[in-house]
Amino acid sequence: MSGPGVTLGELAARFGARLHGDPDVRVARVAALEAAGPDALAYFVDPKLRGALRGTRAAAVVLREADLADCPAAALVAANPAAVFARIAQALHPDPLRAGPPGVHPTAVVEPGARIDPSAWVQAHAVIGAGAVIGPRAYIGPACVIGEGVEIGADSTLAAQVTVYRGCRIGQRVSIHAGSVIGADGFGLARDDDGRWLKIPQLGAVEIGDDVEIGACVTIDRGALRDTVIGEGVKLDNHVHIAHNVVIGAHTVMAGTSAVAGSTVIGERCAIGGAVGILGHLRIAPGTRLNAFATVTHSIDAPGCYASGTPLQPVEQWRRNWARFKSLDAMARQIKALLQRVAALEADRKGEPKGK
Amino acid sequence: MSGPGVTLGELAARFGARLHGDPDVRVARVAALEAAGPDALAYFVDPKLRGALRGTRAAAVVLREADLADCPAAALVAANPAAVFARIAQALHPDPLRAGPPGVHPTAVVEPGARIDPSAWVQAHAVIGAGAVIGPRAYIGPACVIGEGVEIGADSTLAAQVTVYRGCRIGQRVSIHAGSVIGADGFGLARDDDGRWLKIPQLGAVEIGDDVEIGACVTIDRGALRDTVIGEGVKLDNHVHIAHNVVIGAHTVMAGTSAVAGSTVIGERCAIGGAVGILGHLRIAPGTRLNAFATVTHSIDAPGCYASGTPLQPVEQWRRNWARFKSLDAMARQIKALLQRVAALEADRKGEPKGK
Amino acid sequence: MSGPGVTLGELAARFGARLHGDPDVRVARVAALEAAGPDALAYFVDPKLRGALRGTRAAAVVLREADLADCPAAALVAANPAAVFARIAQALHPDPLRAGPPGVHPTAVVEPGARIDPSAWVQAHAVIGAGAVIGPRAYIGPACVIGEGVEIGADSTLAAQVTVYRGCRIGQRVSIHAGSVIGADGFGLARDDDGRWLKIPQLGAVEIGDDVEIGACVTIDRGALRDTVIGEGVKLDNHVHIAHNVVIGAHTVMAGTSAVAGSTVIGERCAIGGAVGILGHLRIAPGTRLNAFATVTHSIDAPGCYASGTPLQPVEQWRRNWARFKSLDAMARQIKALLQRVAALEADRKGEPKGK
């Protein structure tokens, strides 16, 4: 390629899309349909944005065959426009964290025995513990604290202020955002005879597979006696809490502020909404979907989509229904009794002569 | 003013209150009604504290006209005692973080091209990225990480350990508490054909208006293709999670651990309780109030107060009601059928001769 | 003791267990039943793991008298196996953070007037504010920020990236995990006449008793006019949020992501599950237990176990029940009316001659 950006022809060939339009037109960036200018590529999948598609000034749009008629610009036709767009966006917008040359910042502290690949970045005020291993092209952002013996795989990124406790192992191409804490002690307590709580030492670690993405302020506790395991390709949004001994299967996603209690095993390719809570020692079947706000109190054997909770209402109406919830069991029993009494009345009526 | 503290006469004049009592009495600090001594100013608005008002040893109390009779001390009478008290407390207790002289701590790292106003504080181990702009009298606390090209407005305060990612813009008089993360990547994923998740680069930023206060361990994600926007005067409590592309209108408040999913637009002057969850792509009308624990699954067009959830009960009772919730629809249908059957019985009875 | 590990005889004597088996066998570490080898000690309390007990290759197992028959190895018999195991595990696995010699790392910043006990550890890039006091054998981990005048008691541990704001007091043997923030401003606001929010200065501090354990990314806000108080022996899991003025009684435990709003007083020895929310200005009786996901909107006077919430269901079923919740009050009134109408029909029938 020459000149700024990439030609549509090149994008079509490289990302497996079918081009409608001039293959020599160049795009330099991606943008939303309504904000895209003549140097930008947009995408369309959400029918609610059809108006924005029709009015876009983008150079080209990634979309499905069926939406071609509504596109006033060139189009890259694909069966999965979001995936094609994600790949093109990654190519047009390379990671800004790695713009500078690699190396260890002079203010970083590297303890004895740590091995840092020469192609890795260790930024200002980072601390690399004794015996830690930082892989090729890994990026350890400012003020990260990497404990003793930690392993960080190739091409992984810890944005800033991430703490990884001793002995945890992080795979390749993993991304962890600021404020997250990997490998703090699990909440392991034994009740003593006088009712006080004794700490049970947490002797496992955390193992994070390849291609995992972890948001900001996420906590993943180390295991008590074995490891907490995050499978490859798992994506965890901000503020997620994963307790000790939890195992999360590959390619499962979990949205913001969800929490999983200790020793629960979540299968592969689950899709877990935001603010979901899952009790400990459960098993969640692979492929399970959980709506936002779901509270999971028992294992799920059959994949499917599950939910719990009550609807939002104006507070005066809600309060009346809310109060009635306390009588729900009584109501059910009243209904059952009514059914019997009405049936008796009906039987009685049938026994009577019709009419007069 | 001379001597320690401020006279009541001066406070009355400066903060627009009407004084009952000696204008020459001095107060040096604010305190709670029950803890205040003769150098302290207290305030009274909560009727449950009327006993504490009657017994206070404070030099003076800020209160409403109607409560004057219960006040054994001098009084500063105001229509909005809490607001007057807040202003006086701010005046009597200046920000301790700015007690020392401004300047850049020798252990701070300032990357090339960053511009730091000479009246600003940059504390120990802070990192200021290339091209960042730190405004007059801004305070960048210990171990904060300020990304490339970030702008921090005049008089803003980042207490400690705050991360602001590249390109985010923070207004004037903004306060951000420790552990908060501004501008991490949003949770933007595209599902690939094989079920794996592809990252969609997050190319927007975060824009935070003037006079915003952000608690500890808050996360506000950068937008995907446009900015995430926090309007002026917004107040976010600890652990709040704001996803990508969200827009929060001016002067909206949100209590601890609440979360807003991607692309939702919240109007101005909303009051959102703690532990509230709001799904993505919704619109919340200006002035909406949401009770603590509300789960919002659809847009709110009419301002008002909304809630969801069920009441707390002793667990044995709760479990019976909880189980019945699964049959709520069946119960409703049974009631409907009963209504018909009873109506039929009643009609039948009417058709019969009265009495014997 | 000599040689690696400790003899079973020594453990039995030191930790008050009764030994079944060879007192000269040595164990070097603890492990789970299924993973333990011949140098390891395991424990058994959960009946679901009886199969693992029967198949264990551990050198010895801590268990109850009643389970002795199922144990193929030596046994340390105790009435409270979990507590005995916790104590032995602590003895066999000493704190790895204190493995090196104490002292202040050269990159740490110690402000004037701070007093650091010579037996304490202050790790890389930590910041110790003016006048702070760090007690004997305390461990201040990498990148911790300790504010002005803070007191940290003997043998306390701040793992890494912990911020403690000015004036907060932390007892002895306290453990705080990474990313936690102690003493940020409470969410104290007064509504001004124009609807804007004014900050009320937060002038109290946080007081944390002895033997408290605090997880990762926990926030405990400083009091408004008095202190927020965490009683001795309290255990708070990750992401817990404690608002200003809250008082938590001794030996209360609170699991992950739970939150307590301002000024609530929680009694001693409560057990609070995960994702629990407690409104402000409430009183929770000592010994209260709250199930995970409970939402507490009123004070609890009688200790007991409480819960709230609805069950998880397949989404199609849930949606029907969810929608009916809006009519719960109407349903209750319909049932009441039906009861009256059916009673009237029954009375009517009784007034009739039987049969024909």
Binned strand content of chain A: 25-35%
Number of strands of chain A: 40
Structural classification of chain A: alpha/beta
Gross morphology of chain A is flat
Helix content of chain A: 10-25%
Quaternary structure type = homotrimer
Mean pLDDT of chain A: 96
Q: The biggest beta sheet of chain A, please? A: 11 strands, parallel
The number of helical runs of chain A is 5
Distance between termini of chain A?
97 Å
Strands of the widest sheet of chain A, in order across it, are 8-11-14-17-20-25-28-31-34-37-39
- Nearest-angstrom radius of gyration of chain A? 28 Å
The unreliable regions of chain A are none
Most extensive interface: B-C, 78 and 80 residues
Question: How are the elements arranged and paired?
Answer:
Three copies of one chain form a homotrimer.
Chain A: E1 6-7, H1 8-15, E2 18-20, E3 26-27, E4 29-30, E5 40-43, H2 50-54, E6 60-63, E7 74-77, H3 81-92, E8 103-104, E9 109-110, E10 115-116, E11 121-122, E12 127-128, E13 133-134, E14 139-140, E15 145-146, E16 151-152, E17 157-158, E18 163-164, E19 169-170, E20 175-176, E21 181-182, E22 189-191, E23 197-199, E24 206-208, E25 213-214, E26 219-220, E27 228-230, E28 235-236, E29 241-242, E30 247-248, E31 253-254, E32 259-260, E33 265-266, E34 271-272, E35 277-278, E36 283-284, E37 289-290, E38 295-296, E39 305-307, E40 313-314, H4 315-325, H5 328-351
Parallel strand pairs in A: 4-5, 5-6, 6-7, 8-11, 9-12, 10-13, 11-14, 12-15, 13-16, 14-17, 15-18, 16-19, 17-20, 18-21, 19-24, 20-25, 21-26, 24-27, 25-28, 26-29, 27-30, 28-31, 29-32, 30-33, 31-34, 32-35, 33-36, 34-37, 35-38, 37-39
Antiparallel strand pairs in A: 1-3, 2-7, 22-23
